[in-house]
Recover the amino acids of this structure.
């Protein structure tokens, strides 16, 4: 069996950062509350790069963001998923985390979506 070295994993994380950059926030009913392109949304960024493990996308989501995306409050958020585009229907990763509830437009939560390679 072939084993990847550290550069191989870094190269894979670079691919992920460039191609799986649409992060969806999921609610407790398994519905998508919103989906952002990390590279194009002012409330999203890469808090670590391909040289780090995990590669982490960080999103700051407010209740108003959920409303702007067509949702309603209160909402309980339970995880994130990554996709290759804004319209893709097949997720590439899923990252569950402790629930966060947004009750009013001013509520805010900072969410980290982690890509860990190797696991």
């Amino acid at each position: 069996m072939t084993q990847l070295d550290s550069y191989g994993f870094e190269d894979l994380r670079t691919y992920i950062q460039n191609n799986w950059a649409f992060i969806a926030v999921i609610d407790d009913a398994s519905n998508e509350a919103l989906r952002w392109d990390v590279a194009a949304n002012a409330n999203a960024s890469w808090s670590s790069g391909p040289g780090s493990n995990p590669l982490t996308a960080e999103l700051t989501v407010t209740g108003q963001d959920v409303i702007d995306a067509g949702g309603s409050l209160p909402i309980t958020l339970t995880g994130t998923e990554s996709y290759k585009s804004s319209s893709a229907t097949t997720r590439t990763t899923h990252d569950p985390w402790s629930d966060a509830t947004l009750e009013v437009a001013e509520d805010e939560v900072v969410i980290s979506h982690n890509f860990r390679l190797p696991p």
In short: The beta strands are 22-27, 32-37, 44-46, 55-62, 75-83, 93-102, 108-115. The mean pLDDT is 96. The two ends are 17 Å apart (CA to CA).
